[in-house]
Each structure stands twice: as C-alpha cells, then as structure tokens.
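Continuing the batch. This is chain 6 of the set; chains 1 through 5 are on the previous pages. Same settings as before, nothing changed between runs. Recording input and output for traceability.
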Amino acid sequence: MHPAAEPQEWAWLANQRREVSFAVMNVHDGPGQDGDAYYPAALAELQNIQLLGYVPVSYGERSVAEVARDIAAWRTFYGMTGIMLDELPTSPQSLARCGEYAAAAREAGVSFLVANPGVFPTSEHLDLLDVTCVFEGTAATYTDFEHPDWARDVPPSRLWHLVYGCEPEQIDAVTSGAIERGAGHVFATDRSLPNPWLGLPRVLSAELRFELQPAQQ
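Output for chain 6:
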C-alpha cells in the first residue's frame, strides 16, 4: 500500500507501534530502481516501529550478488537496518545458499534479519535468522497446522505466522490462536489471493475510510 494512495492506513500503522512487531516495506517487489520520493516522510512517521525492506530470493534462484544489491539499495534509499527475505528455500541442500544470503545481509549492516519460507525449514535455517515465517496459508489450512516437536524449544519471538482468507470475525481468534501454537508474531487478514498482503484487512480498511467520510448535514 503506497503512502500516497493509502495515507489513512499508514497513519493507522504509525499509531500501532506498541502492537506491531515489525512492518515490511515493499516498494516494487523490492526497493525499486530509484528512491521513491513519497517514502522518506512516510517512513519517518514509523520511526518507533522496526521496519524491514522486502527482498525476494526466488527459492534460491536469485544470485547472492542480486540479493546483496537489493539490500544495499534499501540501505541507501531508505536507511533500512532490517530486511525480510521472501521465498526462502527450505531443503537441507539449500542451507549453504541461505547462509550466503544471510552473510551478505549481515555484512551490509542488517541488524534484524527475517525470512519467509512459509513453511518450517530446518533448524539450521532458523539459526541464520532473527525471525522466520513458518506458516503462510489460508485460515482453512491453518486449522490443522502444528509446530513440529523439534521446534517446541524455539522461542516464540523467533517464529511468525501469516494467515489469509479469514472471515472478519475469525481474525481475533486466529491471532490469539497463533500465540497458543507457539508463534510470537502473527498477521491475520480477511484478504485473499492473488495478494492478501496488499493493505490492512478489508474490514479494518473499510472502518478507516468510514471514519474519514464527512459528517452528513
């Protein structure tokens, strides 16, 4: 959600700093080619929220050099010290490539490194990261989701769930349920594919727009 297109949602986010673990910024499937003039002022309003620049790794297909360039661009354009690596591969054979991505991020000055494989990777993958999204899917599939036994000792602060396709009345229950399952971070939304993360939950967006409507005379 671009700050010029959805200013009310950005203003809402700025007021949630005590409730938000972190917020992922995605200018154009990454940092974009040039700095976007609308973002610096909008990001300044979020200075008390941990911000992460979005960097896809295409399940290990992107080269380390390409990923490092995106990370450097986030640092240069927006001063980001947090990065979220999306589409992280999870097979044991991918560990070396993921280690190279993580090393490139740390060398670039990233102090908070998050990744989204969308499923549980190996414990060695988890050790490379500060937070890992171990579930990304629908509310229907989330019903039967459980952490594997080996992950029971992983601190909740290092695990994240993304749940979409919720009914509006499910969102609170899904959020509290994630905590009970062992995740310290969760985002639940009533939006659906192709991009359930394009803004706040629809029910919340509708409330914000209603609040902005002028009073009837």
